[in-house]
């Protein structure tokens, strides 16, 4: 073909490429880490390898997985969202307050009659998270505050408001939640709420990896000048990313509310760090442009497997922080092998 | 109390008691651990001591209780960080045939709980008000300013103490006004900052109620730095060794001490009794009184109530 | 010469702090015309490009497209108006693949509802990226590799392919032949000629004067942010062009057009 | 001159440049923010404008300023150090433990006799901080763990160790510190310890802005490939940067120990966020390559002026977090005007 | 031809994952010699440069300096041995000033104790940077401006100045004339000639074949990571060189030297 700007074809070895790819693949390594952890814990405490333990781990995993998925979008876009933990607390408190005071729902409602309350609660919780996410986006896009400080500020404000609304004490739930956590934890590691989380995450994962929304998130984190030069409305997209992160944190607030049976202002304390740790263990780069949903999911699962395992094998509480630190460092450094297509 | 059938039959099996407390970094629980370990050794049972390293919160405690129960202990001593949120965990334990006791704080529904042993935070708060009023030489018709250093808006123990303190002030010392409160967020340096600013803002400040050990440490340091130790009344809570030493030097007017070790010992003793004999002499609710430590307290009592860890 | 006047800037100025990068520059572009924009390093060429592409807002001056005054708030607006730009640097997202970069901002979506939700037709894009690049005369290996794994020239080829395959009205190429091999550079010139033949207006920036003389209809010379010469290419030869750029030949023909 | 690659000289207007420079200068804006804050607080509460208040603010500022200065180096180098708050606690506890148990120093020592204890304490505290900093550097350089996760892990480990060593309770001091805090806070806003901090910061500032060490820190944060291509030993330099940050945090631990008269495991809780906030308010970029000591110092001063001011004007504690969030957002967004020479 | 053999690589190979970027390439450089390294985009030139400069470690092969085998653990070691490199991209720190970039890694320190502590002589550096750049034939405005405030060509000029002013033994220039104006590019060629006259060995990479033919003593052609031709410049003309690069002329002379 005449006039074609042909660059030299490259010598490749596709089979070797594929094998190397599998071996150094982020997800493969994480699954390996997971298997090793489960193996060690089960050896030290045979009761660890059981359905109830899996159920415990999955239940713990649920709330953090939700916010970690939102955080994955934020981190891939090159930002960070420190407000998610506080949003969990605030949205739970506001949902509880609304049901108890705003709607006057009765605490004794049982079974299917609880459904309307749940729906209202979930809407309110997600709405609160969404609102905080939009405030984050405003601070970042309009006031040009870097995400770390912008979301640190909203984190403080959310903590403040949840205390103001709740006077510091948990607000009791207006509903009985047995209908949504009714699976038998002895026979089945999943509960209805965890299944709900998995569905939400699957949808988010599809959007991240298969849709235009996800592609733009990667593009902005990779090179925001290039993204805007390609016609992407960077501000609008970042607004959606922070709104998504906030909304998922609101949903996590509802999850925690259902679990605790109460909206507690302190219920999300420190969860932002768990979420960020899960995302980074999952292989994302805090510089943006890199990260995968599968990695995040496994990262969160590893975190909670470690937490549960250490208690079951009887590590003393004061040593737990030290051991967790060592295990996380080990898990992350297992990825050194992995060949990232990072910038510089 | 629990009438569960597993009660008496476990006498010959090895007894494992899981003890899930609030936050390991709080010396209160460290002192409790000492009592629990002593009693467990004395009774010849296995103690599993668990809890969050530093967060006093329901969301971190529930997974710990879940994991501990997965190990199928004989009994569970629980210090619930939230009365509503931990109810389900207690129900779950009882359903699995685990004997449950509450110490220090309780769940809403005590009907399945063997016993609830506590210090009285409300009473502690009102004793603090008495000690402070004595120090500032309260007279009717006078007007006095005091401040209260709190931990965080969500710390549940703060609530009872502050309620007791406020109620006692309103009832007995109407001339005292609580002019401000502030949070230390578990950081003694922040507690010192709060006191420093109060000293500037309220030059005539008469007294400080430091609601926990951290606030006590910070307030003591701030008063010492400004050379105001002894002139301004300072009543603290919890008998940290360092703070007890400062009663003698006149920095603390008084410390309200609980007896966490005694609470733990009684809980373990009752459980073992119940499992081995099918019943216990301990009542369903036991209140272990607070002690006021001040300059009149004997050296023996001072060292007896000081929180020690091993 | 050639077609209608399509794109025009009048008296645009732009400062970076105290640095005067553009000082009342004016430029006209007709359909089917290739204008060469030349000037010494730091003369203000890339700044003018960014004003034309909507990446920068000028401090003063007017921008007219098809005779109507326009204000570009963002590159999107200029792109929507059919103006495609190759920037001198950082125009690609290093973590995205070749085909994702080529399609960025105009992705192909799956058919039906999924498409409405923004789900992508990745395979189609990979294939079409390859075809598109070939159609405009550029071939890049393995469109599934990420940009960060390409050599300097390979990256440049993708960037050119991107700009050229989407342009509907105007193409602005800021030093497109940088990093390219001799043959590939020659092929870029062919691509420019093809675009001209299709009736597009092209602004071509280069320091390789023979290329400029070969492919342009008119040459605009910038010096210190000012247009010092604007004349048909036929009036230049290699030495005169170099002299005008460096200032050793005074810009007598500055008024010429 | 023949053969010279001359690029076109640029039209410049140096006077205008200078004026614009002053008006948009980071430090100028921060001083403006400071003045406005002091003005508002003084209007609302005249006692705020007093020597004792200045003394309070400076005393609070001392410990955070120390760790914020270390953090400035870390952030300019393109990293982050979350372990500094925990180091403050650990180093204070270890210093106190060493003096009380290791050396058996007497609690009742007074006046000048206390000096040896102080020197030993300071050495131990700085040594502990330095050690943790070196562990951070090991995790980052050798195990290739990103700084956020590496220092999050050491943060957990430090918290764990300080509880293990102290059983959670403060360890009483072995000395009477009246000799070093003996200035009169009514007449003089400075104390000896604060003056010490100022000297340390001045030296650190000189090294950051005037020495090769500082230049390399900027170079690595700006483009680490370029830095290593220029022959800079990037790993060795980063090791020194994290060691410096750790050592300054250790010194801050000693400062807090002197202030509290005891080593308390919880004394640094959350200080890493204060320090990072101070650095960013001071104008540094979390992407690296940008930041100044003066900015950090003023950033920390603004933080504590706000904290003190809010207590003095009597903002209800529940609302304080919200107000702090708003004020920080306002202070940072005042810098939007400022024209950063940022990358992209 | 010219002086002693100073720098040599034998049979070096380098893969990026499955991409074979260098496949047993060998190259010799003598004192006072300019070697042109040419090849199509993606041929492996920049990869070879990085192996020579110590930025990458080869997967196989030997590196010899003055006849002794060396292993570069980092660029520092190659720099210390007198080998200076201009990379195709990202060789400058954007936040540092022109003079800081020129002196990076070899700062001038203040006299006395302050100097021992690493305190810098900033004014001296600013002045000397300017002088150094002029001495090697390059002038850049205002050495106190940061790199991010320069135009593409201005940046390239600083990078060249940096490499040229420090070299003691070998200079490796990867596409130095990219982004440069026609006059400035000509001046870079003069700089290369001056370096050669001083007895340095120079490796010059460029896609501008006339430049290569003008200034080199010997030309090495890379294709798909292999050396397909290594012959004195006198054996080439423009067409033969282009043909060898693209592969349309089979590399009969591959053994020639
Ligand atoms: N980081 C990387 N990861 C994977 N492949 C790479 C990487 N860098 C380069 N390559 C590949 O290695 C081969 C050689 O690249 P190199 O940069 O050495 O080419 P080059 O001869 O310098 O080309 P150009 O003239 O375009 O600069 C190319 O096929 C390129 O795609
Ligand atoms: N971000 C910036 N900040 C400050 N000054 C800048 C900036 N970008 C460019 N300049 C200055 O503006 C002037 C014009 O720069 P511009 O990039 O438009 O030049 P150019 O003609 O494209 O040069 P080149 O041929 O080297 O690419 C130069 O003096 C340059 O130093
Ligand atoms: Mg340019
Ligand atoms: Mg190259």
UniProtKB/TrEMBL annotation, chains A, D:
A single Gene Ontology CC term: plasma membrane
Native source species: Salinibacterium xinjiangense
Keyword terms, alphabetized: Cell membrane, Membrane, Transmembrane, Transmembrane helix
Subcellular location: Cell membrane
Record flagged with keyword Lipid biosynthesis: no
Lineage, highest ranks first: Bacteria, Bacillati, Actinomycetota, Actinomycetes, Micrococcales
Location (main, coarse): membrane
Protein name, as recorded: Monosaccharide ABC transporter membrane protein, CUT2 family
Membrane topology of the entry: Multi-pass membrane protein
GO MF term set: transmembrane transporter activity
InterPro entries in the record: ABC_transp_permease (IPR001851)
Listed transmembrane segments: 20-44, 64-97, 117-139, 146-169, 189-208, 240-260, 297-315, 322-338
Automatic annotation (TrEMBL), chains C, E:
Annotated InterPro entries: AAA+_ATPase, ABC_carbohydrate_import_ATPase, ABC_transporter-like_ATP-bd, ABC_transporter-like_CS, P-loop_NTPase
UniProt-listed Pfam families: ABC_tran
Protein name (record): Simple sugar transport system ATP-binding protein
Keyword annotations: ATP-binding, Nucleotide-binding, Sugar transport, Transport
Gene3D superfamilies named in the record: P-loop containing nucleotide triphosphate hydrolases (3.40.50.300)
Example of a GO MF term: ATP binding
Keyword Transport: yes
Residues in ABC transporter domain copies: 7-249
